[in-house]
């Protein structure tokens, strides 16, 4: 697939990687997928091979060619957040800093009270926004993703397994820990004196007590593994 774009639009960001890419581009690469550019859209073409998906590249082209009336309504409800994430990722890849900042700012607006995109979006979008924010240095947006994710775990709207996989993939151990605690995984009912502990301190309801201890041990074991700590054992081995 060959796409013809104006060099001016690709290079107008002062930090654009395309400025250097054009210096290395040649007609010898014209038989591979990529973009062809010229100053006016006519005449000699320079070819740059690309390895991005069509959806990602369409998003970047949209941002490059969008009219002011299109960009100014992106902070209103109904904006295509997935496209904005693609814009942020592609802009980061090709060092289009102003476009990346713009896309992340618009996404941030949609995550604020009154719009609350993070309260309803899919796990996939939570993950993508987190990754785009991390690459773009937006720690505020990155942290907000986790803050909005946890309550949705507690209500059962989202799966804990997805959150734990995410935490492990990105090294977010505190997030994994908070996710476990917010869902109550590993907790068992607290035993009162009347329910299971005799006056001499021994468990009367041993099966119930064993279940509680085993459950607590499993939770601590999981957290220890996440923190890189060797799992502990009792004198009798694992519970």
Detail the topology: elements first, then pairings:
Blueprint: E1 2-6, H1 7-11, H2 18-24, E2 34-38, E3 46-49, H3 54-65, H4 68-71, H5 81-93, H6 97-110, H7 123-135, H8 139-154, H9 160-170, H10 173-183, H11 193-196, H12 206-226
Parallel strand pairs: 1-2
Antiparallel strand pairs: 2-3
Give the gist of this structure.
By secondary structure, this protein is mainly α.
Description of the structure:
This protein has three domains: 51 residues, no CATH class; 131 residues, no CATH class; 54 residues, no CATH class. The protein has twelve helices and three strands. Strands 1-2-3 form a three-stranded mixed beta sheet. Helix 3 crosses helix 5, helix 5 packs parallel to helix 7 and helix 8 runs parallel beside helix 10. The N and C termini lie far apart (60 Å). This is BTB domain-containing protein.
Q: What is the averaged pLDDT score?
A: 75
In one word, what is the shape? globular
Beta-strand proportion: 5-15%
Oligomeric state of this protein: single chain
Individual helix count: 12
Largest sheet: 3 strands, mixed
Structural class: mainly alpha
Helical fraction equals: 40-55%
Spatial gap, N to C terminus? 60 Å
Tell me the domain tally.
Answer: 3
Low-pLDDT regions:
25-45, 188-203, 234-239
Number of strands: 3
